[in-house]
Amino acid sequence: MDAKQEKQDGVRAKASGVEVATCWIDSLPIINKIIERTQLHEFLDEYLTAPRRKPTVPYADVILTLVRNILLSREPMYGVGVWAQKYSPELLGMSSEQIGSLNDDRVGRCLDVVFASDYASLVIALMTHVVREFQVTVDELHNDSTAVTFTGRYEEAAEPQWDGDKQTLAITKSHSKTRHSHLKQLLFILTTSRDEGIPLHFRVANGNTSDFVTHIESWDMLCKITERKDFLYVADSKLASTQNMNHIDRHGGRFVTVMPRTHREYDPFRQRVMAGETEWMEVYRQTRTRGSDNVFRRCREELSTKDGYRLLWFHSSGKQQADADVRKKGLEQTRKALEELRDRLASPKTRYRDQERIRKQVDRLLNRRRVRGLFDVTITSKDDPSPEKPHRKRYDLDYQIDEAEIARQAKADGLFPLLTNDTKMSAREVLMAHKRQPVIEKRFAQLKTGFEVSPVFLKGVRRIEGLLCTYFLAMLIQVLVQREGRQRMTKRAIKSLPLYYENRPAKRPSSTLIFKAMSGILRHTVCHPTGEVEMLTELNQAQRQLVELFDFVPENYGRSP
Fold first, then answer.
1. CA distances from 465 to 151, 187, 264, 441, 471 (A)
2. How many CB atoms lie under 10 A from the CB of residue 507?
3. What's the angle, vertex CA 444, arms to CA 440 and CA 446, rounded to 5?
4. Backbone torsion region of residue 189, taken as left when φ is above 0, otherwise alpha when ψ lies between -120 and 50, otherwise beta
5. What is the pLDDT of residues 15-51, one digit of tens each?
6. What is the pTM for the complete model shown?
7. N or C: which end of the chain has fewer CB within 10 A?
8. Cis peptide preceding 455, ω within 30 of 0
9. 451 or 410: which leads in pLDDT
């Protein structure tokens, strides 16, 4: 065996004529089993643009290696090749020579190929197969978006540019969802299923794209993936535009969304609540282990919008407390800001010499924390002449908190309105569909915290778009591993697995727990003059249970073919 191959095949050690080669196994066999069922390799081979000459490492193998790396290690792109060399080549679907040729340049060129390819059709074909193969429930789908932030100037990406037959995305500043307004961003749009939050579709849009204009295209794509139109489409208040709702309704779809505060019917109903002109009934009670239960009530009177859609008003005791806390915090912060402004007015070097300027500053302070109407602010003036400016004035302000108005507005705390075009769903069913929306936040949390997608440091916009597609594929495999494990536990009546520290039980183990529990499994090949012996890491209790759960034989897990 030459030195080059020794360097590529895991970690090697020699002593007294005996050579030991060690390869990492970890949870790759489990991941590969899920990848095989998704037929991801076949779809990548079909949809990635065919090269002019056959590459040293097929594009599908590079992308799948990057997916596995995101799931298990999240190495920087220049470290993927070194990471891959630790593992047994057959677990990555490549030869030793191909693994040795992996580097950041090859991975980057592969991401260019993903951009140049029709990866939108790849996602549709892949997810259509996944829905059938894994019997994913698609009667209720949840859509939302998040910002993927960038560090750097990205001047070449300020505007979309044509690159061949495709247009690149614009990386721009906008009203960032992460509240990092100083960073540029792209918009990552994701749709998940009600069933374990499986990612079904994603799109990447320009950084300054409004969520209002993304829903029609997303809904149309979901119709192709699910091969139906009657699924329930759940989204936040950006869906509640006449154009979006009419498009879904006109094509036979169903939706549930939140009516925004800016809607013309929002404030009149809120005034009615504060006047005590509405009646309520309990529809759901959320039991809490600590504190009082969160009680949901709905208005007995069912309303409709001008477009004829159902308008259901709900009240949450939990949201009522949260609204009160927000108001209290806003009042305190505004009071401190007014005191600081008063001190600045009293300063001998103050620049506030114009009453209109002071009024605008007060308005900004009151609007910033939504406490307008709760403060009564009076601006007074007095002469403060100087030889140069004999007509100069000095200003002061006084304020009082309107306790009566606070008490009146507190009567409307906890309100939230839901819109739907489904006339058969009960108010409770509409509420529960809305309450399942946070499942998509778990996917965003994994994308940003677990996968560490933000901030992105790549310079090429083409490669960034290809990388985000790869992250979607990694997210899909991760959730399918988690879902498969939980379903198998249910079928085999396994109540928990000892995956936490000190062998504490996990009733619904996440994929992160599974990957962590399976880490440290190695294969040692001992070569000596009389022959070769293969040894595997002895599995602990949790590892044996996981291996058996995914239908592997513990004694053969990780053994070479």
1. 16, 11, 39, 21, 10
2. 10
3. 115
4. beta
5. 777 888 899 999 999 999 999 999 999 999 999 986 6
6. 0.90
7. C
8. yes
9. 410
